[in-house]
Write a structure and sequence with these properties.
With about 425 residues, the chain is an alpha+beta fold. The chain has four domains: about 90 residues, Rossmann fold (3-Layer(aba) Sandwich), CATH 3.40.50.20; about 55 residues, 2-Layer Sandwich (Dna Ligase, domain 1); about 130 residues, ATP-grasp fold, B domain (D-amino Acid Aminotransferase, Chain A, domain 1, 2-Layer Sandwich), CATH 3.30.470; about 90 residues, Phosphoribosylglycinamide synthetase, C-terminal domain (Glycinamide Ribonucleotide Synthetase, Chain A, domain 4, Alpha-Beta Complex). It contains 13 helices and 23 strands. Strands 12, 15, 18, 19, 22 and 23 form a six-stranded antiparallel sheet that branches. Strands 3-2-1-4-5 form a five-stranded parallel sheet, sandwiched between helices. Strands 6-9-7-8 form a four-stranded antiparallel sheet, sandwiched between helices. Strand 13 and strand 14 form a beta hairpin. The longest helix is centred in the middle third of the chain and has 21 residues. It starts with a strand and ends with a helix. The structure holds adenosine monophosphate (AMP) and glycine. The site of glycine has 7 residues, from loops.
């Protein structure tokens, strides 16, 4: 089969590498892919948000199946457009992708169907938001309604900070239309868990759990980023917690989407906080997480393409989805300065990878057979091993063999997870 993958980050590199192992996969196209993905797929310069360009590519390249991974094309209706020309897709349609596209929609859904989440109020008017924030407890969380590259949730410590945040989002519109409406949310505490699931709207199959490290600096300090590293499984996600999440969160969400006429088929991502009051939803994503995918897919033992096709065709209950009981760690190497200003264009030197090591390339470009940095998050160094400790050590050993000017990475990926296991 000829497979089309939309997107061009580290997550897409992990998806492409997993698809390559699938028995029915003969050829992979990536739009736009990147300089690293180019070693594993045929990349063409069509942007992931250029829906017309994607449709036109698919109709002229005998594409048998498409995998749409990033949030923007999903929210814009890329799956609807490809299905309309007869290309079966893995990924939710536009109506179902609203679960990530609008945080206000997601909150209303959770309220209506009693899915545990932080208490919150939605506002379209800055004065009303500020009046509400005047008497709110601090810290509080202010969230832009629409997509904001992972930077739309701001934890504010005081009314003064809240005022500045509301002004930036709603008046100065630093996130454009995404911040015209905001949510003000209760601040929750507890360990965070990411659970990616496969669902066809009837069956929900959770993948191995993971833990993201979103802040830029060690010790969870600094700005929020797209994610600086991940480990899987997440030790806080015990079997008891998993059962509770299935009953109280995963199945109710999938049923709620059906009841709203927005059946979700694809990867539904649950960002959860395990509070003293039980698991609560922090966010839904309508897609694989980045860099969660880089630790989850290397642990998948089943054929990814077969699972994706079963999701598309509503046959997930008949399909084997098996994960290894091993562990994985991904350390993201970024350009110094990310998520703010950073320089790019530096040559990257990569070691040959050993067994159970992977390098997933993200912000890179290829010129004259060489790789150069071209983005904030440049690549992920991944190791799978029998224990979390070995996986973390292995990922750092691999990271140390990779070099480019201005490389920066966190030194404490997996530290909290290992402490939870009593390893430190
Ligand atoms: P989001 O963009 O919704 O994924 O939020 C980014 C990060 O902000 C999350 O991973 C949490 O660490 C934090 N966060 C979001 N909502 C809350 C909340 N209600 N309480 C505490 N922390 C939160
Ligand atoms: N790592 C979080 C996300 O993909 O949104």
């Amino acid at each position: 089969m000829n497979i089309l993958v939309i997107g061009g980050g580290g997550r897409e590199h992990a998806v492409v590498k997993a698809l390559k192992k699938s028995k029915d996969c003969s050829r992979i196209y990536a739009l736009p892919g990147n300089g690293g993905i180019a070693a594993d797929a045929e990349c063409y310069p069509v942007k992931a948000t250029d829906i017309r360009g994607i449709v036109s590519f698919a109709s002229s390249h005998a594409v048998d199946f498409a995998v749409v991974t990033p949030d923007d094309p999903l929210v814009m209706g890329c799956v609807d457009a490809l299905e309309a020309i007869g290309v079966p897709c893995f990924g939710p349609d536009k109506k179902a992708a609203a679960i990530e596209g609008s945080k206000i929609f997601a909150k209303r859904l959770m309220k209506k169907y009693n899915i545990p989440t932080a208490k919150s109020e939605a506002f379209g008017d800055p004065q009303a938001a500020l009046a509400y924030l005047k008497d709110h407890a601090y810290p509080a969380v202010v969230k832009a309604d629409g997509p904001a590259l992972g930077k739309g949730a701001v934890i504010v410590q005081s009314y003064e900070e809240a005022e500045r945040c509301v002004r930036e989002m709603m008046v100065e519109k630093i996130f454009g239309a995404s911040g015209e409406k905001v949510l003000v949310e209760e601040f929750l505490t507890g360990p965070e868990v990411s659970v990616l699931t496969f669902t066809d709207g009837k069956t929900v199959v959770p993948m191995v759990s993971s833990m993201d490290h979103k802040r830029a600096l060690d010790g969870d300090r600094g700005l929020n980023t797209g994610g600086m590293g991940t480990v899987a499984p997440n030790p806080y996600y015990t079997e008891a917690v998993a059962r509770e999440c299935m009953e109280r969160v995963f199945l109710p969400t999938v049923r709620a989407m059906n009841a709203e006429g927005r059946t979700f088929r694809g990867c539904l991502y649950f960002g959860l906080m395990l509070t003293s009051d039980g698991p609560k939803v922090i966010e839904y994503n309508c897609r694989f997480g980045d860099p969660e995918t880089q630790v989850v897919l290397p642990l998948l033992k089943s054929d990814l393409l077969a699972v994706m096709r079963a999701v598309r065709d509503g046959r997930l209950n008949e399909t084997e989805v098996e994960f290894s009981a091993r562990s994985a760690c991904c350390v993201v190497l970024a350009s110094e300065g990310y998520p703010k200003q950073y320089e790019t264009g530096f040559e990257i030197s990569l070691p040959r990878t050993e067994e159970e090591e992977e390098i997933y390339l993200a912000g890179v470009k290829r010129e004259g057979g060489k790789l150069f940095t071209a983005g904030g998050r440049v690549l992920g160094a991944v190791k799978t091993a029998d224990t979390l400790q070995e996986a973390v050590r292995g990922a750092y050993a691999l990271a140390e063999k990779i070099s480019f000017a201005n490389a920066y990475y966190r030194k404490d990926i997996g530290k909290r997870a290992r402490a939870a296991l009593g390893e430190e």
